[in-house]
Inverse folding.
């Protein structure tokens, strides 16, 4: 009881709780309206929509066409909240949904279902035009974007015009050019990745159960390797360990003692961004669970069945999940021709207002913004996290509204300042760690209480009411019945 | 009020209600036990399991190895209920789950989620050995089955031994050799089919929203064609119509008036197995909804974008779902070499005890049974439905227990008799039809009351407690929030 109160006080001293409450109140405002409709009811709407499609859209929209590229943390946050009275909004994204990435690891093992962690783009933006496509390149002189449709086998190409452009295309997983990673490793960026992982874990156990498998092959099939000891790799390992011990152990009792799990990282420690005492706690917990941690270890190559470890030879694996860094994606690479990149040469450099900088004169391009993982602010380095992307999108929304209200003037727009809300990581068996030491040196918590905080924070941040119902329900169902192991 | 009572009386006069109550009580008995486990708790279990894997399994199992091929209605029902004290049970099936097919159409448009309509094989049978594989052929002399693993790109092959064999491999969708159907049509047999349909519907709407699509192309993209006017085709059309009018209409208001739906059938009428007055009712409802019915229409060929209709030329389509008849699958084809087929030459002929008949002498093979859609009883033709498969499996379970108790003697085994429990079909907008005229000429109902009966029957028949919670919850969520349109 006393501990709970102490914990509460701790949070009230930080800005974290305040920020959470704000988020919650915002979420409550965005509950979708419930209505049932029929063909007939749409006739009047249809007429106006057809007018919209014929290019009469900008009537009354003082700021013209705002094109948002991407539907991740930055793009989705912006498209959801942008004031469509001032802008005619067009969204281009290869996937027609947003992924709530903090819960993606949970969904990859079935603690939650895939559809609990997505929000469809169209559902939250009836006034927004959406194209399911990749943006290939941008012509900042002509103000056009060349796109390739992500439908129909990606063979259709088209070009769209913009008045204001927001690049929020994110970043790709970085394989660091290590041979075989792209072919044999699984990643954890999208729902399709999570689905592959879920299928592969079950497949490994089924393979090890087949009559023609030899006794020597089984330990290799049941070695689950994770490369990357950051929060993503650690959370995924924790979820996978839960899945294996809580569900697979019951279904494959004769295999469970042959299972091994390893987390590899080239760095000297895992969870490098966390407070030292929390890091030690995580290592202790992982070691006790039997998850091996191999830090300072370089994976030199990957083939279908083995990791090639520097100075240590081949290690068999059944599943390999690659959760290391990020790299540029094709659009940011293409834009690098005339837009300045950051020192890693992977991200678009922007000023404090998120405007990209022209290679011609180093000056900001007034109507092209870049936010999220694909962008970096000059002399103000921030990590590529959902938190940063989210805050940037919120700030840009305000800036764009300000500009519209001021008749296009940039005068009253404020520069961006990041508020570090700390970080959290799940470490398995209903335990997590919360690190707010960036705001207060003593503000850290670990164990079950931190896990409750971890779950309630993400529950609070969940966007739709539908998912606010589904997520706790699946948490309860999983606790009672375990995770489903049907493989499809 | 009066109508409800009349309806109730009607059912009490038939055997249907009684049968349902029995099913319900059976389901209640199969609620899975809830327990949480850890590594350690399995050590003792592991030891005995390893013994099992080394071939010492039949110790104490008087009847030896019972191999069940398939995990559909027949195979799953049998493996779930079989008495493992007498038989060492091995299941071979390419998919590690059972699909509750009556709700598959619902899941194909997102009224329910995919995982609500499956039950994993391993969850309900801890004492059963399972191999995820296709059975390719059976050697009834040597009592062996040659299998190909459905894992690892289907390259592993193995052979297993049986003492008693139950063939319950089902049947494949019949394309009647019409060119292009296999390449371009979608089917509705498995979860993977349902997922493809769900993706394709959304894709059609997204394609029609792309900027480079011409006005002439849109009606073709938004033409949803169903071939087959039986219960599957009709239920799917009804669910699709619900999805389009209730959800897509709201998200794509400018496209909705361009959508068309057609049900094609080569027969002179749809729902041929239903009572005439019910059939007329369904046709009236479909016509009022705007779903075109084209009976007596032969589809001669299919290409990527068109149906070629006999005497009527090409018709563009966006999605084509093929829901006609069934044909043999590779195993039943292979077994036809030495086992007698029925007159269609597609199903294995059996006696009234489900024993297959040898081509050598026309006599039953004593230890090889065939049930479900892959089998047909000599001189006792029954439709290839879930109801028949289910009753056959229940009967076979009893027979096998009887044989075991009688020390292997076949003497007291009873021949199978089918009890027709009638049929139901959902026709959209919360209306269904229930046809029990086979038991009582007046026992039929249609409309909303029938729909409530339709839903409660399938809810009752749902197997796991997990799904008994999930299914009504998704029904409610869909009613409130609509179906999710994220495409992955």
């Amino acid at each position: 009881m006393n501990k709970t109160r102490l914990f509460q006080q701790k949070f009230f001293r930080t800005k974290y709780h305040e920020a959470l409450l704000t988020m919650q109140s915002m979420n409550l405002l965005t509950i979708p309206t419930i209505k049932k409709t029929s063909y007939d009811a749409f006739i009047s709407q249809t007429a106006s929509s057809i007018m919209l499609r014929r290019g009469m859209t900008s009537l009354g929209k003082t700021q013209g066409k705002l094109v948002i590229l991407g539907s991740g943390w930055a793009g989705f946050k912006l498209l959801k909240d942008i004031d469509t009275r001032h802008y005619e909004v067009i969204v281009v994204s290869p996937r027609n949904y947003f992924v709530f990435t903090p819960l993606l690891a949970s969904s990859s093992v079935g603690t939650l279902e895939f559809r609990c962690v997505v929000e469809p783009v169209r559902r939250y933006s009836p006034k927004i035009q959406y194209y399911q496509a990749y943006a290939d390149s941008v012509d900042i002189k002509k103000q056009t974007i060349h796109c390739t449709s992500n439908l129909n086998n990606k063979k259709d190409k088209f070009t769209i015009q913009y008045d204001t452009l927001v690049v929020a295309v994110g970043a790709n997983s970085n394989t660091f050019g290590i041979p075989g990673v792209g072919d044999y490793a699984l990643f954890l960026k999208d729902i399709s990745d999570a689905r592959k992982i879920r299928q592969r874990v079950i497949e490994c156990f089924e393979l090890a159960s087949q009559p023609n498998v030899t006794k020597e092959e089984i330990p290799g099939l049941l070695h689950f390797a994770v490369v990357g000891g950051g929060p993503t790799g650690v959370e995924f390992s924790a979820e996978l360990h839960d899945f294996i011990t809580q569900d697979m152990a019951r279904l494959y009792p004769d295999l469970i003692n042959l299972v091994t799990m390893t987390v590899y990282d080239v760095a000297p420690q895992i969870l490098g961004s966390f407070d030292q005492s929390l890091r030690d706690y995580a290592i202790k917990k992982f070691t006790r669970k039997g998850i091996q941690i191999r830090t300072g270890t370089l994976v030199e190559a990957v083939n279908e069945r083995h990791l090639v470890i520097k100075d240590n030879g081949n290690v068999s694996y059944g599943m390999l999940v690659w959760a290391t860094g990020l790299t540029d994606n094709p659009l940011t690479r293409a834009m690098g021709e005339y837009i300045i990149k950051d020192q890693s040469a992977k991200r678009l450099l922007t000023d404090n207002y998120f405007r990209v900088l022209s290679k011609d004169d180093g000056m900001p391009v007034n109507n092209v913004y870049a936010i999220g993982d694909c962008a970096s602010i000059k002399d103000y380095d921030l990590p590529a996290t959902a938190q940063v992307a989210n805050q940037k999108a919120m700030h840009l929304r305000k800036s764009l509204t300000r500009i519209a209200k001021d008749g296009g003037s940039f005068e009253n727009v404020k520069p961006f300042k990041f508020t570090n809300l700390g970080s959290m990581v799940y470490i398995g068996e209903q335990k997590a760690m919360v690190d707010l030491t960036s705001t207060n040196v003593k503000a850290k918590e670990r164990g079950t209480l931190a896990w409750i905080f971890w779950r309630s924070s993400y529950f609070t941040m969940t966007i739709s009411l539908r998912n606010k119902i589904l997520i706790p329900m699946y948490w309860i169902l999983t606790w009672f019945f375990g995770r489903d192991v049907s493989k499809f």
Notes: The first helix of chain B runs from residue 2 to 13. The first strand of chain B starts at residue 65 and ends at 69. Chain B is about 35% helix and 20% strand.
